[in-house]
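Give me the fold.
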Amino acid sequence: LPIFSRDSRCDIDIVLVANHVRVNNEDKSMVAITEDLLAEFESFWTRYGPVSPLRARNHLLAAVCPQIYGHFLVKMAVTLCIIGGVAHVDPSGMKIRGESHLLLVGDPGTGKSQLLKYACKLSGRSVMTTGIGTTTAGLTVSAV
């Protein structure tokens, strides 16, 4: 019979016994950039960039969530949030994050959920939530 005292430390080991394990949160941030992918990127900007950078932008935005036609401004906002910004330190020494947040509000049936689900698939670290069944405490915990 073990003897416990107030000053003793309790050690607990976590054990997992399973027949099958499925990974839900795989790290998508470690994308391998191959030479073929780099060459395709350079040929795309050589073909579209000098002629019309806006046409190149629209071509890229059409590839974002292709099941939704148009909505280039919304697609651009989602794409810019996925790409992110540049973090920097201001003169007082405060670190300013480069990532932005997105609040997407609109009429029903405009494809908001489809766009956000597509963005969650592309982004390695993303949290998607809806107003149904979400509490303030839950959003705070998931954002940290």
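The chain is about 40% helix and 5% strand.
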